[in-house]
Model the fold of this input.
Amino acid sequence: MALLVVGSVAYDGVETPHGKVDRMLGGAGTYISLAASHFAEVKLVGVVGEDFAAEDEQLLADHGVDLEGLEKMPGKTFFWRGAYSHDMNERTTLTTQLNVFADFNPKLPASYQETPYSFLGNIHPNLQRQVRDQIASPRFVGGDTMNFWIEGTPDELAAAIEQWDFILINDSEARLLAGEYNLLSAARKIQEMGPQTVVIKRGEYGAILFRPEGYFIAPGFLLQTVFDPTGAGDSFAGGFMGYLTEQGIESLDDASHAHLRKAMIYGSVMGSFCCERFGVEKLRNLTRDDIERRYREFKAFTEF
Amino acid sequence: MALLVVGSVAYDGVETPHGKVDRMLGGAGTYISLAASHFAEVKLVGVVGEDFAAEDEQLLADHGVDLEGLEKMPGKTFFWRGAYSHDMNERTTLTTQLNVFADFNPKLPASYQETPYSFLGNIHPNLQRQVRDQIASPRFVGGDTMNFWIEGTPDELAAAIEQWDFILINDSEARLLAGEYNLLSAARKIQEMGPQTVVIKRGEYGAILFRPEGYFIAPGFLLQTVFDPTGAGDSFAGGFMGYLTEQGIESLDDASHAHLRKAMIYGSVMGSFCCERFGVEKLRNLTRDDIERRYREFKAFTEF
Done:
C-alpha cells in the first residue's frame, strides 16, 4: 500500500542549546516521507529549486520515496532558519525565504492518482483541496494546517477540511480553529467541520486521538536530551499514516480502534526519534527493530 | 491500615472563570485527608483557629478522619485567597494570612506514633523532620515541598528529604530542586538526595512516577470543564497514598511496580474529581463506585 504526501521540501538552519546547523535538509514533506517510509511506500508531491542537492534526492530515493511528483523549478529551494529557547519550548523564526515554494502548485503524476491514502501537509487550503480533487478513489485523506491559514483564509480552510477524514493539528491550532480552549470541546467542534478523526498534538506531552466513540491519550516519550525538535510533529504524522497505510485499513470508520491507537504510538515513536539528532539525521538510519523496541518501551511505561 | 497526614487546614477564597467563592474549607491537609479517606483511615495533624466551623470539623469526621491531632489555637485559621487566569494555567495569590498556621508546631498524639504510612505536606522542612522523628517504625514516609523552601532553606530541606522514601512534587519544583531542566535528569538527581520513589506532577498533563528500575507515565484526565484546580495536586497525593495504605504495602522497594502504577492512577482520578467543583465540594459525596468507574476510564483511554 502507498501513501501520498504533499508538503514542503526545504533547507533549514537551526540553532538549539546543543549546537547550530547552517543548512540541512528539512521541510514537512521530507520529515513525513522519511518517517512514513519505514512502514510504507511513499509518493511525494513537492517542489525544490535548482540548488537541491543530489545527495538529498538520493536520501529520499534510498528510503523508497517515489520522487516523480517532486518538481524541480528554476530558482532556489525554500529556506527557513530558526532558533530555540533554552528549554526548547519557544521557537523564533529568523529567516523565511519561500523561493520556489511561493508558486507551488501541486500536480499529481498519473501514477499517483490511485494512491489509497493521502496526507496533505500544511499549504494553502485551496491547494490542499485541489490535490484532494485529483485523487481518484481514496480510502482516506487528511492533513495538517497552521495559524496562518486558520486566521488568514478561514473559509478556504473550512472548504478544504470538510472533505477530510482526519486532521492532525497541534493544541494551540486546534483551539484557534475551534474557537474553544477546552480540548474536548475543541475536538468536537472540529469533528462538526468534517474530519471524524481528530489528532491533537501536544509537543513534549504527547498527543490525543479523538473519535466519535471515544478518545485515546498517547504520552510523550521522555528524552534524555532533546537535540532539535524541528520536524517532530511531521515525523509523528509520518509514523501515524505510515502505520495505517502498512495495515491497509479500509476506512477510518471501519478501522478497529486498536489500529488507530497503535498508529498514535508509532507516530509518537517517530516524533521522539526525530528530536534526538539535528534535522532528519536520526530518521536516516533507523531500523524497524529500533522502532519496535521503542514501541515496546511505550507499552512498558504506560501499562497498569 | 492508617495514613498519617500533616498539612495545612485552611479557609480559601477562590476566583475562577466559572465563579467566585469568598470563603470555603481548604488547605493541603484537608484535600489530602478527604481524598485518602476514600481508601484508608486518615490521622490528621494540623492546626486551626477558634473560627474553625463545627460543620467543617464534622465533614472531616464524617469521612473517618481522626482529628485528635488537629490542634485548636487561639486566633484565626490560615486564610488564602487567589484568582485563576482564563485558561486556568496561572494563579495569582491575592491574600495570605497565615494566622495560627504561622506558629504551627506539629505534635503527634501517642495514638498516631505507630502509623505505618505518612505524608508530610508542605511545611517548614525542620517541622517535617521533627514529625518524621516522632514516628516509631514507619513502613514508608514522604512528602511534598515548594519553591519557598527549596530556595529559602535548601540545607534544612536536604536534611528532611534525605529521610524520605518518596517525594511528590510538581514539575517546576522538581526542576528547581534538582537544578536540572530535563525531567529524567531531575528525577535521578532527586533520587540521589534520598527518596527512591519520585512522583512529578505536571498539572493537566498528568504525572510521572520514577523508580530506580524505570518510570511510568499517567496522563491527565480530560475534563469538560475545569471549575477550580485548587487542591488537585493534594487530592492526587491523597489518592496515591490512600491506595498504597489500603493495600498494606510493606515497603516501596518491595511494592510491586503494579501497585505503584495503580496508585498513580488513583491519584490522577482523585485530582480530576477535585477540579470538577469548587473547593472540596466534589470530594464530599464521592463513592468508591465513582472512583472505580473513572479508574476504568483511565484504562480505556490509555490501553493499546
Summary: DSSP finds eleven helices and 13 strands in chain B. The radius of gyration of chain B is 18 Å.
